Amino acid sequence: MGVGINVEKLNAWYGKGQALYDINLKVAANHATALIGPSGCGKSTFIRCINRMHETIPEARVEGRVRIGEIDAYNGTSPTQLRRRVGMVFQKSNPFPAMSIADNVTVGLRLNGMRNRKVLTEHTQRALEMAALWDEVKDRLKAPATSLSGGQQQRLCIARALAVEPEVLLMDEPASALDPLATSRIEDLILDLKNSYTIVIVTHNMQQAARVSESTAFFYLGELIEYAPTPKLFNHPVYKRTEDYVTGRFG
Question: N or C: which end of the chain has fewer CB within 10 A?
């Protein structure tokens, strides 16, 4: 089951440039929360800070507190431990091209020391079923991951993230490179997965945010401007900047 996320006074920098300013945000467990806002406003940086992916960028640093359920992401928890609990799916599907479909799913488990072939097989099927991909690939699990279509590759990346049984799934514009049919499959998947996981999704598509999320956060120039239940934020925003953005006046 998913767990809540509690972010307090989060500030982030890349070198001398500050990307996030005093972000306070509570994400409910087993909900989908959408992050919207113009390009470069800090949405992707924010989710990268949740599972410490920003640390892969030189001179990046963070101040503040991030709690995932009962654990402190930055105090007493290693990035490896954290990423077992917090999976991530990126904008561009990134299956490992030299690996088969099945090996792509289980790579995280094998890196964590899992060697039992029966257990790996069970995890492969379960993760692919949860990613709504099993029926399409069950007869070609040894085929290269690159033999799949773009939408299938993105669902494979979701299966890879789910295989290690995380509690939180972060999604950075997971459907932006996909056609409308594949996008619809990803959205249906999010609606199913949020029963078992806490999902945070970055999206430029406001219709998508309205379709899949219970809550939406509007970011602008590194600040969290407004955070509310999705219908309220879109229909009755408190701040004019939010209203201007969701009505298409800028962004």
Answer: N
Angle in degrees, 0-180, between the axes of helices 150-163 and 180-193, rounded to the nearest 10: 20
Coil, strand, or helix at residue 115? coil
Which residues, 6 or more positions from 213, have their beta carbon under 8 angstroms from its beta carbon? Answer: 31, 32, 33, 34, 201, 230
Residue 122 carries which side chain, given as an amino acid letter?
Answer: E
Which residue type occupies 123?
H
Residue 218 lies inside a defined structural domain of this protein = yes
Cα angle 98, 108, 180 (rounded to 5 degrees) comes to: 70
Q: What are the E-state strand segments in the chain?
A: 5-14, 17-27, 32-36, 60-68, 71-72, 86-89, 168-172, 198-202, 215-220, 223-229
Q: Judge whether 150 and 177 are in contact, CB under 8 Å.
A: yes
Which residue carries 């939180």 as its tokens?
Answer: 168
- pLDDT tens for each residue of 192-232: 999 999 999 999 999 999 999 999 999 999 999 999 999 99
Which CATH number is 177's domain given? 3.40.50.300
Per-residue pLDDT tens over the stretch 55-114: 888 899 999 999 999 999 999 999 988 988 999 999 888 899 889 999 999 998 888 788
Report yes or no on whether pTM surpasses 0.70. yes
The number of distinct structural domains making up the chain is 1
